[in-house]
Design brief:
Helix content is about 35%, strand content about 20%. The protein contains eleven helices and twelve strands. The longest helix is centred in the first third of the chain and has 17 residues.
Length: about 350
């Protein structure tokens, strides 16, 4: 995904999350930075349809409706009650663009454009809650010193040079690259770029890039090729961790869309009177998937294995201690074949 499209999706999410009204496509075009420069109506609607599909693919609850019976066109908004999570830690690939949007909201690179969208909404008479963007706080931390300079170089379209270690014990080597994007994958940050020395596409883990990162060449000279899948390049480069087992979980009807995409549907199943489905999930990193499950509160229940249920419990206990709140109440384990199970009853949605 190009940096321009990522910024546009950030602004679109913030815009639709900050209003309780349904916004028409024309209102969004006039409000959200990234759409205002589109030359024709046809080009705008094609772009907007692609962006809507992208948000839905990421599991963002995009609603369609009309403000009143007098409206003649549909509008759009993000349902906050389905979107917001408690103050918990989210995995990077589960949070995806929504988490990145919330994190970059506070960054100098995107804060001006995002705040400009809110100002335009108020000027247009749309009810705006500026604190809405604080509802999600993903813990995908960009603590690597190279993150800021590399992101700035991507946005400016400039090449960079830096020292890089292929692995911690190796000697550092000078690299000259054309940065295409900075991507989070499985809790780590990667630079996707064209390596000038090797004349090939490369992915570098940011934790192995040493300071200083120096931008070279004119601005606007570097741009990712059209259609480049940055996340796919990182995924192929890093490779998936091995499957170490499977888990069965119950998911409430209409909830945890991201988790549903990862799992295999076993069939419909009720849990304590609530309709839902039973899913089978591949276990590659139990701690990571425990964080995903814990983020959905009572909407996702671990059926097996016991180790995953225990990991969810530990995550909630750590979150409670970190925020100086009472430990979440663990509901009684269901009896029968579905033991053990985890359900946390103190989640506010």
């Amino acid at each position: 995904m190009s940096s321009a499209r990522a910024e546009r999706l950030v602004n679109l999410v913030l815009c639709l999350l900050s209003t309780r009204q349904f916004l028409s496509a024309e209102r969004i075009r006039a409000t959200v930075p990234g759409y205002d420069g589109v030359a024709s109506d046809e080009a705008f609607f094609r772009m907007f349809e692609r962006d809507k599909a992208e948000l839905r693919d990421l599991g963002i609850p995009l609603e369609t409706g009309r403000r009143s019976m007098f409206d003649t066109v549909d509008g759009y908004r993000i349902a906050r009650q389905d979107y917001e999570l408690g103050d918990i830690e989210l995995a990077a690939d589960e949070a995806a663009a929504v988490a990145l949007a919330a994190r970059l909201w506070d960054s100098p690179e995107l804060a001006g454009a995002a705040r400009g969208a809110l100002v335009k909404l108020r000027a247009a008479g749309v009810e705006v809650d500026e604190a809405a963007g604080a509802g999600v706080e993903p813990k995908v931390r960009a603590t690597e010193p190279a993150f800021g300079p590399l992101l700035a170089a991507v946005q400016a379209g400039r090449a960079v040079t830096f020292e890089h270690r292929p692995h911690p014990a190796a000697e550092s080597r000078r690299r000259t690259v054309e940065p295409w994007g900075v991507v989070s994958w499985r809790g780590r940050w990667y630079l996707v770029c064209h390596d000038r020395d090797r004349d090939d596409v490369r992915c570098f883990r940011l934790s192995r890039i040493e300071e200083p990162v120096t931008a070279i060449g004119p601005a606007g000279a570097v741009q990712a090729p059209e259609g480049t899948d940055l996340v796919g390049l990182v995924r192929d480069s890093a490779g998936p961790p091995p499957v170490i087992g499977v888990a069965r979980v119950w998911v409430a009807e209409g909830r945890a869309l991201g988790l549903r995409r990862l799992g295999r549907l076993l069939g419909p199943q009720e849990y304590r009177g609530r309709p839902g489905d039973e899913l089978e999930l591949e276990l590659r990193s139990p701690e990571t998937i425990a964080r995903w499950i814990g983020g959905h509160g009572p909407d996702v229940v671990v059926l097996e294995p016991a180790e995953l249920a225990d990991a969810v419990r530990r995550g909630w206990a750590a979150a409670a201690r970190a925020h100086a709140s009472p430990t979440p109440r663990l509901a009684d384990q269901p009896s029968g074949a579905v033991q053990p199970s985890v359900e946390l009853g103190s989640v506010a949605r």
